[in-house]
């Protein structure tokens, strides 16, 4: 069975990206992160990552609060009978 030129090119590209030789090596930072998160500095673990974690936490809490209020509002609106015209 013959493959078309496009299929052969796609196969060659996919084999090239799967190859482990072309991956760059990343520095192992596990021990640094363990020291950061296990430090006894009075912060809860979900805020020990710094400003990024704090922003993510506050955004999530705000969206959750907004969604809860929005849900309660629409439950109240839909529980009221419509006025006849």
Shape: flat
Strand content: under 5%
Low-confidence blocks of residues: none
Class from helix and strand fractions: mainly alpha
Helical region count? 3
According to DSSP, the number of beta strands is: 0
Query: Topology as H/E string?
Result: HHH
Distance between the termini: 73 Å
Largest sheet: none
Helix percentage: 55-70%
* Computed CA radius of gyration, to the nearest angstrom: 27 Å
- What is the typical, i.e. mean, pLDDT? 85
Assembly state of the chains shown: single chain
Secondary-structure topology with pairs:
Layout: H1 5-18, H2 30-38, H3 51-79
Family: Belongs to the cytochrome c oxidase VIIa family.
Keywords: Acetylation, Membrane, Mitochondrion, Mitochondrion inner membrane, Oxidoreductase, Transit peptide, Transmembrane, Transmembrane helix
Membrane topology: Single-pass membrane protein
